[in-house]
Amino acid sequence: MTDFYTELPKVELHAHLNGSISPNTMKKLIAKKPDLKVHDQMTMIDKGKKRTLEECFQMFQIIHQLTSTPEDILMVTKDVIKEFADDGVKYLELRSTPRRENITGMTKKTYVESILEGIRQSKEENLDIDVRYLIAIDRRGGPSVAKETVKLAEEFFLSTQDTVLGLDLSGDPNTDDKGVFATHLSQEYQLAAETFNLTQSQVWELSYKSINYIFASESTRSELRKKWNHLKPKVLNS
User: Fold this and answer.
1) Measured between alpha carbons, how far is residue 175 from residues 88, 181, 182, 198 in Å?
2) Distance of alpha carbon 233 from alpha carbon 1, whole angstroms
3) What's the domain of life for this entry (predicted)?
4) At 90, which CATH number?
């Protein structure tokens, strides 16, 4: 049954970049910054252990310390995209708030450019996944920061040929992201199916209908529907 959920083509509509970092990528980031004295237990949930919601969101502060350069953001973006592709995600809308780091010289613009470069390189590697980016506004930053982000989003919206689709409004969410909550989309589908006693056909329909809610154009929706229909006989009969 687990193979069915992994092979099921999926749309991921709500993935925060920094919240989707896997333990493997976290280890690479920690190794690059020994001076921070961050250890694995601060960023990962051991199998069978639980973490409070507050503890999960404290992780974002550590992640921000570990992702302080454009090179960090590029590596994280590429790793996250590959992991989603490996999990059978065919269309991904990543979202992330542009961040500046005065110590390293990273600007909000170079932050966004690093994500876009990660998307571009992943595409060149022919991963079977279509990745788009929503530039996020953290509502806690206030109106002047929001306006700055809107201007940045407008600039990239016009120059990236539909990779930047628009804006995300973020702030203080209550369940999110495969990295912080030690899960993946296939597992979430399986949990939903077991909780609500869904058949494989019903799970397929859930996944197929999610295509309706992407931010990209109708032509992209049409291409995704073709892909789902092409894969359907193999996945449902496996």
Assistant:
1) 21, 8, 12, 22
2) 16
3) Eukaryota
4) 3.20.20.140
Residue in the block written with tokens 């990209």? 216
Question: Is residue 127 one of the residues assigned to a domain?
Answer: yes
Picking from 173, 175, 201, the residue whose alpha carbon sits closest to that of residue 188 is 175
The pLDDT > 90 percentage for the chain reads 68
Residue 232 lies in a domain: no
- Is pLDDT at 37 greater than 90 in this prediction? no
With 0-12 / 13-18 / 19 or more C-beta atoms within 10 angstroms meaning exposed / middle / buried, residue 36 is: middle
* 94-151 pLDDT tens trace: 999 999 999 999 999 999 999 999 999 999 999 999 999 999 998 888 999 999 999 9
The answer to whether the Cα torsion of 60, 64, 65, 67 is positive or negative is positive
- How is residue 132 written in tokens? 């788009």
Closest CA to 142 of 153, 150, 154, 132: 150
Residue 231 lies in a domain: no
Q: Tell me if 84 sits within 8 A of 10, measured CB to CB.
A: no
The verdict on residue 204 lying in a domain is no
